[in-house]
Amino acid sequence: MTLATKWKAAAAGLLTLALLGGSTASAYAAPGDVLNPQPNASEGGLFIFDGMTGDPISDPAHVFDRFDPIIGSGSPTELLGPILGTPANTTASTNAYTFIASEENVRANGVILWNTYTLAGLVGGQAKGANLTPGDSMFGNGTGVDGIFNNVGGTYYMGVAYTKNDGVTVDSAIYRTMTILANNKFTLAPVALEESVTPPTPVAPIEADLAANPGKQVANLVAPVVADATTLTIDAGVANANKTLNVGAYSTYTDLGTVTLDANGQGTVDASVFADNSAHTLVLWEADGTLVGFGTFQMNYVSVLTGSNPVTVDVTTSKKFELIAPAAGTIDLGDVRRNQTTSPVALGQFTVIDDRETKLGWNLNVSANDFVSGANTIGQIALGYNPVAVGALPGGISVGNAKVAGAGVFGTAFSGAAGSSTGEIGQAFNLDLTFKSPIDAPVGTYTSTVSLDLVSK
Fold it and tell me: What is the DSSP letter of 126?
């Protein structure tokens, strides 16, 4: 019985991947609370709500009409949030008013000088639900509310005041800056919030700072280093007890992190970054850059002194992806009786090379044609195979399942996982072939073709 062979390989396109290093940074400070006092000297924030719907009006560009029903609140989310002002100043207040006034007259003489005002009252000593609608103001001085809206482009303060002495003495005032527009319209400046604050980055003292502060040099700041130790023992004195200080060393500045000193002003620092016995200067400093002290030290390596040199290498690839066929083109499986199986015959060693840059992985699949002898045919299922690896397999490369002669299906004999490689030399394999003759097979010499397909993943 003879068995012809043919070979083919299917390779996928190359893929280039760039790996980029990077870093991210996030802000240290979060947005703050309501600024108190406000830039216009208001003693807290005053928030505006729609008097019809109860919804907050937070758009700083919102244009109000003189007769829009609006309510003032001390909360950005609650309609009846108390408008507190400065509580220490309002304990003796007897009443509260809503008002519109020029800057110079907000706190001067209350109801005597405000352009317009309305009694707001106190609930449990607090102003709540203040009606700020300008068209509803009941009292005024001079030209009153009409004079305000005739002064297009003018600015006023609209808000709530805690008072005593019948509204003449102003104890605390909470308000927004009001800008008058044409046609009885106006806008309100937004409530100001505390700004986010990023703490300053500590700056280590430079060597010139050490030279300029000889009194900061401490003779025994660093204890003599134990042989082959990589830790420094520091004694900064009881004046620095329980402090956490920044630590560095010169000549070229090297950051050594921080040290937390005990009740005696002592602590330890990891100095393993220094690989030889050169002299250095240790520096202790506060987070704001204030120099605490400095002193000299040197490591005490006696067992092994190490040095280092950079080593570089360029890893290249042949970019090969191929199947090298067995030397023999025809395999004779021998003679076999009906319903019997031949002894295994090696197909012959073949080699898979996957030395691509992309390392996508691969499968080596086995298939065969039907066996033919003249007009007689035996199905391909009669052929069996057992995959055999030659030598140790590289990581990620594996042997598939065998197929029993006369049963089963053809499949993957060998495979390489994504990320694996055979290198430029490749990996050798073999197949032990067998044939089981059907019990009713006509006598004859049968020929088939076995195929190995190398397919990229």
Answer: B
